[in-house]
Amino acid sequence: MQVHEARQNVPTGYTATGPASSDTVLSLRVALVQNNIAGLIDALYDVSSPSSPNYGKWLSKTEVEAYVAPKQDSVAAVNSWLSAYGLNATALSPAGDWLGIELPVSKANNMLAANFSVFSSTVTGSTTVRTLSYSVPSDLVDHIDLIHPTIIFPDPNGAKRPVIRVADRTASKTFDDSSPCASVTESGSMTPACLQHLYGIPATPATVSSNGIAVTEYEEQYAQGADLHSFLQQFRPDVNPDTNYTVISIDGGENPQDPNDAGVEADLDLQYTAGLATGVPATVTIDGEDDFLTGLLNTGFSLLGLESPPQVVSTSWGGDENEFSPSYATNLCNVYAQLGARGVSMIFSSGDGGVSGNQFEDYCTIFNPTFPSTCPHITTVGATYLIPEVAADFSGGGFSNYFPRPDYQSEVVSAYLALLGNNDTGLYNASGRAYPDVSAYGVNCSVVIGGVTQVVSGTSCSAPIFASTIAILNDRLLAAGKPTLGFLNPWLYSGAGAAAFTDIVSGNNTSCGDDDNLGFFATKGWDPVTGFGTPKFASLLSAVGL
Ligand SMILES: *[C@@H]1O[C@H](CO)[C@@H](O)[C@H](O)[C@H]1NC(C)=O
Ligand SMILES: *[C@@H]1O[C@H](CO)[C@@H](O)[C@H](O)[C@H]1NC(C)=O
Ligand SMILES: *[C@@H]1O[C@H](CO)[C@@H](O)[C@H](O)[C@H]1NC(C)=O
Ligand SMILES: *[C@@H]1O[C@H](CO)[C@@H](O)[C@H](O)[C@H]1NC(C)=O
Ligand SMILES: *[C@@H]1O[C@H](CO)[C@@H](O)[C@H](O)[C@H]1NC(C)=O
Ligand SMILES: *[C@@H]1O[C@H](CO)[C@@H](O)[C@H](O)[C@H]1NC(C)=O
Ligand SMILES: CC(=O)N[C@H]1CO[C@H](CO)[C@@H](O)[C@@H]1O
Ligand SMILES: CC(=O)N[C@H]1CO[C@H](CO)[C@@H](O)[C@@H]1O
After folding, report:
1. Same domain (yes/no): 239, 113
2. Residues that bind Ca(2+), according to the entry (predicted)?
């Protein structure tokens, strides 16, 4: 047996309370080594880079699966190991690179030389079964990437993962004034009409039915059809309030439609996609899995399993990067690379804690990046506010400790670092993937939740706004017989894309709470608070050649 993954200590916020009961049944997920992940990443950049002859030639489902399927000898070796323990694996991913097994703790401890124990959160008292290390037979080391859940612990604070500042949930205000942004300038409530005005997002309905936009939901957050109806009536009187959406249920995710089941995040996401990407078919995915990290993975598999996945997927959920193990984060980031290669723009919120993590944590001592924001194969969206826009102080931004800086951003990030000089040295990882890539408005967004019109703030608002802009661009591209935009960053950072944004040049993000430590600042050009800035639809259209 050879140790495969281990952590030195029980994580902060947990205490071990003793061994797990031997008959507790574990659902473990085994990631097999993919046969050619490097080839998949090369293919992703080949089809996503405007300079490539293959730009826009998205891979098919079968082509992607051919890169990530495990080798036959991996499948054979792992299956024979499992069957020696009387276990049958289920394929969890379309390519068969993730397998699921169910087994009692006694068997798992034996098979994996593990010590599955009960750990109790010192904050909430809730318990979780994990092990500090696990091993696999040495002849399987090269066939198994990782097994989950094992050494990754849930957030001990029981933190909710939507990237939203629920504290700002005050009533929305509207004004009779005919100027589209009167509600913002007079009371601070953002509306779709003002976003259309600010970014030039067209109100005319999209025409291409094969286009799509999806938002992904977790943790029993349920979007409400009645809330969308009310939102459209109030804020988009020009569109049919019965505009409907499709639900994809994953892992038994339900879709209750009682006002008491309304989820802030889910309603916000749906209202700023169906309500802004006018006429683009909208989908809500609802994951029923308890473990958020597993939910992210399974949502990715569900999308990969579709012959024609929605071309834009917006996710306003995340965590601190250090909650994910490097191997889990890499594997999940590679799921997003697969979707990118299929032509899907994967868009995520950058987090609401500035440099301090997913939510503001005034106890951080070094900057704390968020994930999936730091995955190099996705597009991350920060937040702005006020008109003219400045960076919102909570806008998540910074540098990964897991993923090195991708080539596409090396020039603009070097320029920012040169400006930063020695400020913040030692607090962030200058060699890491920097984020966000772009930004959009994120303060006091009007939303209807459980029948009540109110305002909420967060990069949770920014991501669907940006995603909707891309979905409408895709509609125009498809109508012109051109391919959709897919993975955006190589294009965004190529110059043509970046030029189509309003550069946000002032404001700074939340620090660790120490006034001497300022976090990062927005400036001319790309910065790790607002990226390239906020979209200008007309310029984006010309940047894509329309
Ligand atoms: C297994 O973990 C428990 C704590 O949950 C500890 O008391 C016990 O000593 C460990 N056993 C071994 C063999 O390490
Ligand atoms: C494994 O699956 C086979 C075929 O479906 C079945 O016959 C067998 O009983 C299963 N074994 C276990 C241990 O579940
Ligand atoms: C957001 O809304 C609150 C409550 O209505 C208001 O006090 C605040 O000034 C608004 N913020 C901005 C930036 O407009
Ligand atoms: C900094 O990021 C690189 C990846 O770019 C990583 O290899 C290194 O371990 C990180 N350093 C720290 C201290 O986390
Ligand atoms: C660096 O920090 C100093 C002291 O806080 C501040 O006055 C200066 O403006 C900062 N420079 C940059 C480029 O951030
Ligand atoms: C941070 O942003 C605030 C609000 O935009 C501004 O007043 C302040 O001068 C900024 N501080 C720095 C150091 O840039
Ligand atoms: C009016 C209408 O068709 N409403 C449907 C919209 O979609 C949701 C989710 O698929 C259904 O629950 C509603 O019945
Ligand atoms: C320098 C600066 O403006 N820092 C701000 C960062 O954000 C926090 C709150 O999120 C403010 O209190 C700081 O003033």
Report:
1. no
2. 503-504, 525, 527
